[in-house]
Amino acid sequence: MPVLTDTLDRRDPDAVARRQANRAAMLAHLAEHEQHLDAARLGGGQKYVDRHHERGKLLPRERIELMVDRDAPFLELSPLAAYGSSFPIGASVVTGIGVVEGVECMFVANDPTVRGGASNPVTSKKVGRAMEIARQNRLPLVNLVESGGADLPTQAEIFIPGGRLFQQLTQFSAERIPTIALVFGNSTAGGAYVPGMCDHVVMVEQRAKVFLGGPPLVKMATGEESDDEELGGAEMHARTSGLADHLAKDELDCIRLGRQVVRRLNSRKLGPGPSLPADPPLLDEDELLDIASADLRVPFDPRDVLARVVDGSRFDEFKPLYGSSLVTGFASIHGYPVGVLANARGVLFAEESQKAAQFIQLANSADTPLVFLQNTTGYMVGKEYEQRGIIKDGAKMINAVSNSTVPHLTVVMGASYGAGNYGMCGRAYGPRFLFSWPGAKSAVMGPAQLAGVLSIVSRQSAAARGLPFDEEADAAMREMVEAQIEKESLALANTGRLYDDGIIDPRDTRTVLGLCLTVVHNVPVKGADGFGVFRM
Amino acid sequence: MPPVTRVLVANRGEIARRVFRTCREMGIGTVAVFSDADADLPHVREADVAVRLPGSAPAETYLRADLLVDAARRTGADAVHPGYGFLSEDAAFARAVVDAGLTWIGPPPDAVEAMGSKLGAKALMEKAGVPVLPGVDVTGAPPDDVAALAERIGYPVLVKASAGGGGRGMRVVRDPAELADAVASAQREAEQAFGDGTVFLERYVDRPRHVEVQVMADAHGDVVALFERDCSIQRRHQKVVEEAPSPAVDDALRTRLCEAAVAAARAVGYTGAGTVEFVVSPDGEPAFLEMNTRLQVEHPVTELVTGLDLVRLQLLVAMGRPLPREVHQARLSGHAIEVRLYAENPTAGFLPATGVLHRFEVPDGDGVRVDAGVESGSVVGTHYDAMLAKVLAHGATREEASLRLADALARARLHGVTTNRDLLVRVLRSRAWLDADVDTAFLDRHDPAELGRPLADDDAVRLHAAAAALAGAAARRRHAQPDVPWGWRSVPSAPQRVRFGVEGRDVEVAYAFGRSGLTVDVDGTSIGAVALHGATADAVDLEVDGVRRRFDVSAVGSSWFVDSALGATELVEHDRYPEPGSGLSAGSLVAPMPGTVVRVAAQAGAGVAAGEVLLVLEAMKMEHAVRAPADGTVDQVHVSAGQQVDAGALLVVLGDPAQDS
After folding, report:
1. Distance, CA of B537 to CA of A478 (rounded, Å)
2. Interface with chain A: mutation pick from B476, B491, B520, B575, highest number of A CBs within 10 Å
3. Integer Cα distance of B130 and B125 in angstroms
4. What pLDDT shows up at residue A306?
5. C-alpha–C-alpha distance, residues A345 and A298, integer Å
6. A244-277: pLDDT as tens digits
7. Could you give the 3-state DSSP secondary structure of residue A323?
8. Rounded to two decimals, what is the model's pTM?
């Protein structure tokens, strides 16, 4: 079986130096990323974390750690959501996939150290994404609830869209995807509908408070005098209202009961298990730090990535001699068969587009999940290419991606510009998971190109109106636009906007893809049918 | 004499297996007997056939001569080997066997009887010229006569009540001036305690050694002494360590002892294997103690230094054969040491230990012999002697044998039942033992609680806890997705934690696998720079600060057994999610539903029978009687008639009648 080897020529000092430079750049990105993760881990800040602990309460990650099976992995999603926004990094909620009693579950855990765990617009988006993943993959949804409801100053942005969350909870239930609410603290007003809509509810004695209106609101609305416990105490809900199925003594007991619920869900995977040998790659994963070019204008060979990601570094390439700017082929990760599409030299031409479309159809006819490794500057432009129908060829590829029904997993390794982002299954094309490497960039086009385009357009417009062109202003405009686009295209900015599911260390690529493959196989893997494979 | 073709061993465990082994080698059939408690022991399986002795108490089973003879008859056995203990020195049983037409593999019943009476035996031996401790009956003698008698015996003298035992009525007198008082008070105490004021004087031996001589006699008048064994390390008169030759015996003394032993055996017309026991004073004077008319527990010590099979010789003698030539030519070769591995706790006054012996593996070979009555999975109960096995080592020198034996014991895997292993290892490695500074008071001078404390010290326990945690992680991984790093986190935040109970305290292990490797904290402090070279559910290969060790791990339920060169530790893993207690004391009865108490029948302090109505609740127009779930007494009544109660409200607390009476 063909096995990939390193393309590095160790006798070429330039190539070796380039790898070293790539590594240095990647480590710098990772160091910065780690700092932001520290901020995320600290939630609302040390003061609030300490106060929370003093009350005998656990942080959301501590709750998750206690609930997941020992030594099982946990894939946290969107940890840097809200980066670059006015909201705290992490968006006051922790989401991710963990294994409970052998069952992969989606966790949604409020962080009560951030403004009482209140939901802001980014929170909604992050929770929405977690629920989307849970629904697509039929993962039981475990809500670790402690939230004061909507963040009132931003209610205008959250009230209407936030309502969908509750609708979805009931739809999960209708689709027989289990929903569980473990209520550790306040779950009031709108938040009360989380336990209200879940299949299974556990509340912590003396801690959980679930009501539509608290004592002041009740007093204002009806004049009735009441206290917290009467209105929404765990004890009341367990004995009187019946909203709680289980009354927990404390947080640990609540988690114990939560695990008990999961144990009895009778969950089973509907998709196939791994079917191929899952031996590790022959090349060192650590060298994944060296591969992605520090300067995105320098292409790199994705086979050097695959050699460090796929099982046994085995890769059966499809059409290696045709459309060689895109690498396609079959491999396996953690024993799951996959088809791979990976950009080799940025640009997608007609041949690459056709090859991609054919390959995607082949993978669908074999029910094989697809992995997209992005490093693309987009489809080729120019007279010759337009006249030869690059739009039609690009459309074929985008069409194939759009209507492919096998699971797609996308990793943005480097550039992801223009329609190349679409053809290579960018966020808008609904990959089941999308992760970025720290140095990745996504935008409609490169910052310099975009600024240049704007400059040309305004020069033409000035000329058309017979006005003189202000070169100085143009240079300033180009600089400003370039800086803005550069900033917006960074992986951090995109992850902050939930345009990916998280930034990952390149060395974790195999692990992350392996975990995602396990998750997507919770549902049947079935390729699109209706037509045969078009040879293009 | 008829040939012996099938032997029933009227015994259990280790000695039954020992006899079967030789029978097998000689082509002789085997019959085992077993009590209900012993039904799963290996000796039952290893015999050709086995006969059940219903019940478990010795009196119902291994002491039932009638059942044993009947078992032999039913299985066609033509000979009975009594082993040691139980009926091995019971002349009546020996006669019953012979009367049933079976061959008794032991000495003639008359010889058993002659040696069975201690005083009679002593007189017999004195007559036969065997050295005995000088002693004399002084009951009622005038003080002057007593003083003269004591003078003749020589000080120190032991004043001993004839009917006494367990140290009562015994006094050591070193100063003649104290003699009269000691005799008077011993007499008084003996009269009060035993109703028999008979008092003896006997020479008292300070720091005595216990030395015994193995004899072998055939029915043709041949008696051979197979040298001595030294059994000086004892606890509560139970031998713990035995060796041959005795470090306290030189050639001259050996000759004296052997001659005395042969004379003793001849005096009672002995045949078969027997042991003549002596005390030897520090100046090397021997005196007859008693003769054991059976195969001794410690007979393998003699087998190792002489190369003979004593059971084979017993069988040959029973078949009427003369002692073979190699017995006459036997010579001492090297040094052999035996220890008795007991299920007991030396740090708690040698309290017998029980339980399931989940793992029992003692490395044998290379000069180490293991005679065990149990195997992995055996249940150790309270019905019989707590000895699990005899472990022996043979070496060119005493020191070689000691260290070899200590090493084999240290490497043994003994899981589930507390043993005296660590005490044995410490004794064998101790300076005092290696210097042969040993006498019967060894375990009085050297604190057993100190010698018996675990070989694994606090640092070892920390490493063992870490190993157990990592083995647990490895075990869990067998069911997890392969190839995903252990406990992988995209955003690491906390280590994995496992809590264990060890020797009454808690130990918490926190471990995390990160990109830079493994970190392990025990009770909040790092165990050092760690490299994990391998981990499975059964073994952990862990390097800590440059020292690489292998830890054998096995789990049974929540118990973890870790063995390494540092010792052995049992850890009990705490449930990760303990079920909370109800917060109510045992015996609490709570309201099954909200309602009104209509009648209270229970009265505090009154006794109640199971099913008795304690009170009646009314709810939704239905009456519900709350009844006593078991016999007991009413400790507290928390409600009165007419009172409204919520579901779960405490109504009555019942006490356990056993605790109250």
Report:
1. 63
2. B491
3. 5
4. 98
5. 9
6. 999 999 999 999 999 999 999 999 999 999 999 9
7. coil
8. 0.85
